[in-house]
Amino acid sequence: MTAYTVSMEHIPPLLELWAKEYDVHVPVRDVDGFVNFSPWRPSAEIAWDYDVAYNSLKRFFLPPREDLLRFDLAASTAEPVMEAPLQLLFGVHPYDVKAINQLDQLMDQGTADVNYRKRREATVLVALTPEHVSDLAFWSSVGADSVDIGFDMYFTRISPSSFYVEVLSPKGEELLLARGELPRSTLPEREAAKRKKAAIRAKADKNGISFPWKQTPKLMSRHWDSPLWRNKARHCLSCGSCVMVCPTCYCFDVREEADLDLKGGRRFREWDGCMLPSFALVAGDHNFRPEARDRYRHRYFRKGKYIFDKIGELGCVGCGRCVNACTTGIANPMAVFNDLWEADNHES
Amino acid sequence: MAKKPKIAFFDFAGCEGDQLQIANLEEALLDLLGHIDIAAFREVHTGDTGGPYDISFVEGSITRPEDEPRVKEIRDKSKLLVALGACASIGGINCMKNHMPESVYREHVYGDKARWYPTYAARPVSAVVKVDAEVHGCPIDRGEFVRIVKELLLGRTPWIADYPVCVECKIAGNICRYDMGRMCLGIVTRAGCNACCITEGAHCWGCRGLAPHANLDAARYAMQDRAGFTREEVQDLLRMYLGFSQATL
Amino acid sequence: MSPKNNFSTYAPRPATLVKKEKLSDLVSLFEFEQDNGKALAHKPGQFIMLSIYGIGEAPFSVSSAPEAGNARFELAVRKTGTVTNALHDLKEGTKVGIRGPYGSYFPVQKFMGKDTLFVAGGLGYIPLRSLLRYQLKHRDEYGRIIVLLGTRNPKERIFVDRLAQLKERTDMEIHETVDVPDKNWKGNVGVITTLFPKVEINPQNTFVAMVGPPIMYRFCIGPCMDKGIPSKHIYVSLERRMKCGLGKCGHCQINGLSACVEGPVFKYDDIAPLSEAI
Known about the structure:
The structure holds 3 protein chains of 3 kinds. By secondary structure, chain A is of the alpha+beta class. Chain A is 33% helix and 21% strand. Chain B is an alpha/beta fold. Chain B has 2 domains: 6-153, 3-Layer(aba) Sandwich (Rossmann fold), CATH 3.40.50.700; 165-244, no CATH class. Chain B has helices at residues 17-23, 27-33, 67-77, 86-90, 102-110, 142-153, 165-172, 196-199, 216-226, 231-241; strands at residues 6-11, 37-41, 45-48, 53-59, 78-84, 133-135. Chain B has a 6-stranded mixed beta sheet with strand order 3-2-1-4-5-6, sandwiched between helices. Chain B is globular and about 55 Å long.
């Protein structure tokens, strides 16, 4: 992989140039200290040291509400709607890139979801090695500490004033060199980047699941009837917060709304989640997951087994967003997996 | 519907803020008027061309003896009866008085004329007559009202969110109030408002009523045991709009 | 992997309602014709997504047999929700949108030369009818055809006249029952399991196609195996909530499987270990 060394002062003019063509989003800290990806402005102060972005990045590919069709009621015809603004996400942590890669695989599997695909293809991803690890994160223990596909560029800060930048795609290289040639990184610079990545991984290793993550599907298979599901779900609000903030959850509802003139209308999809009570309700009021316990268990099986069975990865990248979002403190894949593991191994 | 459906608005105990929301639709209201005939709407014009009505929107809660025959008459004259706004759909803030001694709230509201105004515990419209649909909120969400009317005009059962506000709050990308050390009823309240209060910097007051599967024990656990609010603080917030529900028990 | 063209995953194509026929109080048969003049090219057991714009989209099993060159197909639908209510109100000649066919199907090749035992509970007859009609169309290629059909009460029976015609045929047998009879009902009374003792089969040579309400599978798989039918010969079709039909939206998941992609037709062996299947 080609790598260049980029100085800090080179970055604002680059962003400015990119912003001419792309909707550029960068991590920005708000007045309360929460970091979110926000549209880049010349005045934007990039939160280089953020630990986790409050909202996941799936909304850039699978918007919370996305039109799929425009229809005509009288003619009963419909035209597909596919919007895909050119966008550049700058400063994405590896576990979040991993989450996007996972969405890529799942949305492409079988019949590809064209709306997703188009947005994804219109996106340039610039990864960034984290400087800090959120207290709630456990990404290094679920195989999401490093990523080698899915991004166009990968920034690692190797000194207060410079970055080691790997370019993975021709697009990434073109954009990085858009303001002229840059020096190729030297061997010591590459070593510095390696050390930086290792250091942050070591920090991240302090919190995690207590067994090799590839064992999780088998672990789950042994625990369908665990009392854990009911114990935890007792406190489940069925509020859907955990699935909404999850970077790898992609379930959706499809609804539609007529225009005011009742002549035309739009069909759209909207984020939905398996934790919501009517998710598996069919006509005739039969609910295939009527209890909070059923839904809670399904979510963790999806994270720990079902997604793995499809693509060989956990459906969880360990970002910790659900842990934070759950106001009753029951949404925590790490705690669930560890509890089940301990139940098997008679520890604690 | 081939003929323009005849629509009427009626109000009981409430501030008529929901009808005001509709009057404030302005252009959208004019568009809607292309599909409907308005028989009675005193926020907009005087008089009532009389029933039967295809759709009656009833605002306000039922809190006086004379309200009952009146709302029953409206029900009899209406093909569809839709509760409009929190007072009508869940009893709303009028139900705060349900948790006070009668003499206290009557004295407070009517002063020395209290004995001329018989009232009793406030109830939602559905406690007295069958309600076909509910437009929730205090005030109602104009966009949702328009959508529900369109769906009724197209002959379909209106889609009403059956999950908590948290879903829409996450969709909006808001910072959770609990992350800011604040209390919020979004965790048990029916969505459909696009989490507007939280988006505007406030918290959820519960004006759309409890979500169908609201887990009140879990909510108390979240508010008291985890977020550290007192039982009184939680009770006060729950009683503001949810006085007619089991949330306040 | 990149889609080759701008073909939208979610855009339906037009079809026209050409005929509507009441089958019972709540169930009607709808015959549609694809506006593109092409056959739907479905396989028995598959479903389509049907759109009534302004109302919504919902999945329906195709009830007719596939037929090359025939742009028409049938759905039998019970009035039970937003889209189905609107569908029942449609006038002949109205256009709708369709996507599909989607999902797995009954393995008609594998059934060839073998006997087929149909087990249909109520509306479960609708997708099975596609398979039955297919087999009757290719009658020589199949062995015995035995249909067990259970309905709650005589009033809810569907395809009544057609069933009467089928009962006349000598190349197949139909055993029907109702849970609760009325005064005119002269047939068998009792749940569908009461029909099993009435049929003689050669179990090793028999395949089962079973569709019914969730509860029915629990009570009918056992009797099939008791008769000696190998579990790998039993095929069921499972209904779930569906929004996309493509395994994306998540609604129809049965444990890790999507009823819309891996299903709706499953080999019993494949779902037997799944706690959420039946």
